[in-house]
Write the structure tokens for this entry.
Amino acid sequence: MVTVTANNKVNPASADTATKSLSEQNFGKTTLKSRQRKFDLKFLLTGNSGSGKTHFTSTYTKGPIHYYMFDKGGEKTVEKLMGNREDITIDNFSSSAVGFSDFWKQFQTDGKNNFFEHLAENSGLLVLDSLTNANQKAITEICKKSGITPSGIGKKLDMKLGMAPPHWGQLLNWMTTLITALQELPCAVAVTVHLHVLMNSDQEVVARYPAVNGQFRQLLSADFDEAYLLTTQGTKRMIYFTEKLSFEAKSRSFSMAHATGITLDQLVDAYLKRGTEIK
């Protein structure tokens, strides 16, 4: 408390003490300070097939890249751009014989082996490509283990064989557990996902969402630092950082609306330098 003398003058020493005391105590709150940036961003890259999602991740050259590949043939895009690089690795889960649990076991093993710390220490990038097909593998496994495999081609539809609310709840749990685990990794992570288009009865586009099931598609982008929409027009590759084409893209790092033909290297350079635009 500041001391006031009989002449109504503030005692400077008392004022300094009060200011210092408040500064030191800070009411038990954490002071927000600008920290030195490192490449540990979590990206959600959404777009139609062929929009350049995998292509964009493979333009990162500042550290190793590891792919959890769920999209059949996705590795061909990486091979096209990798040249003589020897720091790109892959776990391929695209085969129909491989289940979601097989991926999850590998993911946990990689965690125990400090693989993600290795990526972080070497400015590496982990890519899950794509969440859409990982989600589909989870559905297939839940159906199979629950004995509710849908009727095959040419067979009569049996309504009792469909997924019930508890099955969809299990799927949501699996997917949110996966995303939470990815968010907590020490390294940078890019998750690709295909685009779902929602139309009304007049075939007008109402919204575009990540192509995963139910409530999860609406919650997904909230968990990421960066959620971009990628499009391709001819040879022109566009990345949107704000809402576009009824898709709620966002960026916590950049103020620009969109960019054309950029690489992930350029984006990372801008981020580390605290730039709000990518040049």
Summary: The chain is about 35% helix and 20% strand. The radius of gyration is 24 Å.
